[in-house]
Write a structure and sequence with these properties.
There is one protein chain. The protein has 253 residues and is of the alpha+beta class. It is built from 9 helices and 7 strands. The protein has a 5-stranded mixed β-sheet. The chain has a two-stranded antiparallel ribbon with strand order 6-7. α6 runs antiparallel to α7. The longest helix has 15 residues. It is elongated, with a radius of gyration of 20 Å. It binds iron/sulfur cluster and FE2/S2 (inorganic) cluster. The site of FE2/S2 (inorganic) cluster has 13 residues, from loops.
Length: 253
């Protein structure tokens, strides 16, 4: 298979950037999208040209680093898959493929396809944890959790922090990411003591970092490689509302 790639190239955060065209030759249908980019980069390096900067680590859908907008879709055309789980058989021979970084002011572009997602780390650090010592695995197994609650918490915990929800949202909202963290812990007994504080702190930090608001477009759910449901946003809003009613004060962003 052969492809024409139109790739966003940007030297650094200050460079205005622009698209550059490359040819990908003799691509195998069973190559992953990242392997195809590796081959293009090998050719660029052989010609003494700057390779395309993109992130990857696990290459098996776990780490959330392979963030790319492919033909206008976060993580490309496959449902429930990250870029590293996308294979070239998903495209037609001769296709032109447009590859861009995430576009959101809270995720500034560092170089080419690499963006700074440390805003997510700041939100997690604001409250996406429990501070109580819950003991070892044996102690955890003694705390009974109803099966439906455990399943819902596990579904939310599947979030890999990739940021596709933000990139896909017309408002660059981070609600699905934050909701996944808040809902995960709010469904477990260990998460109860700090749940009001957590919801307030994480939502406040999200707002302060410049993410937009949710307007129910549901693009986040459609783009999420872990298929996290927007029902978690409803849960987060209930947790946030309950915390306000409890009279907890909103911490500064
Ligand atoms: S909610 Fe889904 S799309 Fe958003 S960061 Fe988590 S895994 Fe990625
Ligand atoms: S490289 Fe880790 S999720 Fe794609």
């Amino acid at each position: 298979m052969n492809f024409t790639l139109r790739v966003w190239r940007q030297k650094d955060a200050k460079d205005p950037g622009g698209f550059k065209e490359y040819k990908a030759h003799d691509v195998l249908a069973d190559m992953s999208f990242l392997e195809m980019l590796d081959e293009v980069n090998n050719e660029l390096i052989a010609k003494n040209e700057e390779p395309i900067a993109f992130e990857s680590d696990c290459r098996e859908g776990i780490c959330g680093t392979c963030c790319q907008m492919i033909n206008g879709e976060a993580h490309g055309p496959e449902t429930g898959a990250t870029v590293c789980q996308l294979f070239m058989r998903s495209f037609k021979d001769g296709d032109t493929i447009i590859i861009e970084p995430w576009r959101a002011s809270a995720f500034p572009i560092l170089k080419d396809l690499v963006v700074d997602r440390s805003a997510f780390d700041e939100i997690t650090a604001a409250g996406g944890f429990i501070s109580a010592n819950v003991g070892g695995a044996q102690d955890a197994n003694c705390i009974l959790v109803p099966k439906p609650e455990a399943d819902t918490a596990m579904d939310a915990a599947a979030c890999i922090g990739c940021g596709a929800c933000v990139a896909a949202c017309p408002n660059a909202s981070a609600m699905l990411f934050v909701a996944a963290k808040v809902s995960h812990l709010a469904h477990l007994p260990q998460g109860q003591p700090e749940k009001a504080k957590r919801a307030l702190a994480m939502v406040s930090k999200m707002d302060g970092l410049g993410f937009g608001n949710c307007r129910n477009y549901y693009e986040c759910e459609a783009a999420c490689p872990k298929e996290i449901s927007v029902e978690h946003i409803a849960k987060m809003n209930r947790e946030y509302g309950a915390a306000i009613l409890l009279g907890k004060t909103n911490p500064p962003a």
